[in-house]
Amino acid sequence: MRCRGRPVDSASYVPPAYGGVPLHQRLAGSLRELSSAVLERLVDHVPVYGTLPDEELRNDIRRVVEQAIRSCATVLRTGELPDDAQLQVLRQSAAKRAEEGVPVESVIRAYHVGAQECLERMAPHAGPDDLAAVQEAGLLVLRFLEQMTATVVAGYFTERQAAASEEQSARQAVLTALLDGDDVRTRSAHWGFDLPPCYLVLGLSVGPHPDERADGVSPLIAVKRKRRRLRVELERHVGAPVLSALGADGGIVLVPRRVPAEKVTEDDWNWLAGVVSHMSRVAGVEIVAGVTAAAPEQVAAAAGLVHEIRAVAIASGRGPGVHRLSDVLLEYQLMRPGPARDALAELVRPLADRPELLGTLRTFLQCGLSRQRTAEHLRIHPNTVDYRLRRAADATGLDATSGSDVVRVRAALSAHDAIFAHDGPA
């Protein structure tokens, strides 16, 4: 590919010369000296290169530097940029730096630092009559740097995408093994994935974002943005590989912890509640989570449990946040299928067709038996609360304002919610 601005006829091209000596000859003749100077400058000006093993600097990195100088000399000699095959060494080197975790900005800066070192070492050879040659050489080097930057970025991110795809495949394979309870140790070792002593297992219910229902907004795009924000915020707070399978309305998340499940403390749960709260705020959605701690071999059973905890928390009106089994013990037990649950649900069956009475009864219990708070929550007059509670008592024979009936009312509502959630309205 010929540099822009050069004549098509190569015979008309005159290589830039400093002091009567073509610049490409000066570069080629000083190759070893220049490459050593560039390596020293890289270590001084691009800190990450100073952390590389000395053997790598003196071999692999030097080889790439020498190739870049040769390519630059060829550009100055011919006026033409190298083709893709000639840049293969630079592309492969960028891929290696990506594999090593060298930041892409450091990789790009290294090439510019190298070009600067070469030009500065050639500059003293230019005399007053070489102004046109200096300008010509500067333009050619800039065009060469432009091409090298594109080549390096392409090589770097091709490797990064491949690594990210492999890492994601490993995560999904390990997550599948954990949820299936399928020889998780062997599967994780196969993928080179270290299992922690335990996971905090979350079963999430994620509410819709307003954009999902906004006119003129693609619901699919809104859902993808919501999921991406949830994942990014989760990874940001956890700081370790998180395994997750999230759909539009929730899913499962495994957060690694470096202590056994039985040693997870209240501080751990409070931290997790804070993480979920941040996720909710950043994504702009409500999140209800059932949670528990489990060793890797117990994740499959724990996943089933947290989804049940989440369902109980939602059915019993617990609201957004993190809920453990200890938070919903009574409701969880009362919602288990059996004759006792069915009998309890029968107590509030007369209210099945009176949602205003059922809702007032539920809110009254959630508000700590305060008629004033209930009225404020429902935005009705306190006298209306009294009226509805009396109607509910007349229909069921259970008086929520009486201490002796409160426990039975709670139990009956929990049983009713369980049946309603699984079977639909009675």
UniProtKB/TrEMBL annotation:
One Pfam family cited in the UniProt record for this chain: RsbRD_N
Domain RsbT co-antagonist protein RsbRD N-terminal intervals: 33-171
Source species, domain of life: Bacteria
Name of the protein described by the UniProt record: Helix-turn-helix domain-containing protein
Transmembrane segments: none
Residue ranges of domain PucR C-terminal helix-turn-helix in the record: 357-414
